[in-house]
Design a protein that fits this description.
The complex is a heterodimer of chains A (112) and B (117). Chain A contains no helices and eleven strands. Chain A is mainly β and 112 residues long. By secondary structure, chain B is an all-beta fold. Chain B starts with a strand and ends with a strand. The chains are: A mainly beta (112), B mainly beta (117).
Chain lengths: 112, 117
Amino acid sequence: KAGVTQTPRYLIKTRGQQVTLSCSPISGHRSVSWYQQTPGQGLQFLFEYFSETQRNKGNFPGRFSGRQFSNSRSEMNVSTLELGDSALYLCASSRGRGEKLFFGSGTQLSVL
Amino acid sequence: AQTVTQSQPEMSVQEAETVTLSCTYDTSESDYYLFWYKQPPSRQMILVIRQEAYKQQNATENRFSVNFQKAAKSFSLKISDSQLGDAAMYFCAYRSARIQGAQKLVFGQGTRLTINP
C-alpha cells in the first residue's frame, strides 16, 4: 500500500509569488491535515480536511488556504509568499478523524 | 491552549545503552492522547508510541516505553538497547480527545538523539 505522497519534494519561489503543494493520502483515508515545520517555530498545525470540508484551522494568516477533492487528495496554497514562509510542509492522512496519522516526507519550500 | 515542552534539545547515548527523553505538557483537559514521533533525515514523521490519558498503564512498543505521570503532566520516552537506527529527532505531541480537535497535534520543539557506536 502506497504511503502519503507529497509533491513536489523541493520548491524554490521568490517573494510575492504564490505556490500550490499537493498531498495524496493513503488509499481509503478521508482525513488530511497539514503542518508547517520551521527551525524557529517548530511544527505547527495549519488545517485539517475531512470529506472535502475544512474541519479545523490553525493560527495562520489568510494567505494560507487549502482544499480537499472528492478523491481525498488535498492541496494547500500560499499566496503572496514571504521569506518567513520558507519551511518544510508536512501532510498527514488518516482513515477518519481521531485515528492514527500517517505522514508524508514533506515539501521543502524555500522563498528567496 | 495546550503546550508541550521538551527541555533537552540534544541527547546522546552509546549503542546498546538506555536513554530517556523528557516531555512535559500543559492542558486543562482531562481526556487526551500523547505521542512520541521520530523524524529521521528522510523527514517523514514516524509514530513511535501512543498513550491514552485515561489509561493508567504505561504504553510499550518493543524497545520503546513511556513513563506517563498524568498529575505531573509528564510523558517521558525510554529507549532500551539503543540501535544506530534510532538516531533521529524525537517529538513529543499532544492531541485533544474532543472531536473538534481531532487531527490537531501540538508538538514540542524536539530532541535530537545521537547514537554513538
